[in-house]
Specification:
Blueprint (H helix, E strand, L loop, with lengths): L3 E5 L2 E4 H23 L4 H26 L1 H6 L14 H19 L3 H26 L2
Antiparallel strand pairs: 1-2
Helix pairs in contact: 1-2, 1-5, 2-4
Length: about 140
């Protein structure tokens, strides 16, 4: 296992974080390409992806906090210590999906069309995330 990608003075860059970032970028690229094929405006998709990433991270952390709630009772402020780990994939999917539902209703878009566009990107992003988990020792 190689949890640390590299150190630059006092800054440590973790392999998991690198692979999650690669996963986000790869997924975003694939989603934009698919959206263009479907004739959707890139700005519309970029805005949706931005909000889905934010809500996905919140959902992933929230589910982790629920799973590990007794340990967070002792030190509640550690809920915000994302750099110490603790995200649950399905919580991220639920957070992102709820955001997509809200966005679709506000912008009057076809929900199922967007699901079809986003599904391959989600799988690709998850694949990179799993590689990062492997390097972290999960």
């Amino acid at each position: 296992m190689h949890p640390i990608f590299f150190r630059l003075g006092p800054i440590t860059i973790y392999t998991y974080g690198i692979f999650v970032a690669i996963g986000f970028l790869a997924a975003f690229t694939l989603i934009l390409r698919e959206a263009k094929k479907e004739g959707l405006f890139p700005n519309l998709i970029s805005d949706l992806v931005f909000w889905m990433v934010i809500s996905g991270i919140i959902g992933a952390r929230l589910l982790y906090v629920i799973y590990e709630f007794p340990s967070f009772l002792k030190k509640p402020l550690t809920i915000f210590a994302l750099w110490k780990g603790g995200l649950v994939f399905i919580g991220g999917v639920v957070g992102g999906l709820l955001t997509m539902i809200i966005y679709v209703k506000r912008k009057k878009l076809d929900f199922w069309q967007l699901v079809d566009i986003f599904a391959p990107g989600l799988a690709l992003g998850e694949a990179f995330g799993r590689i990062g988990c492997f390097f972290a020792g999960c």
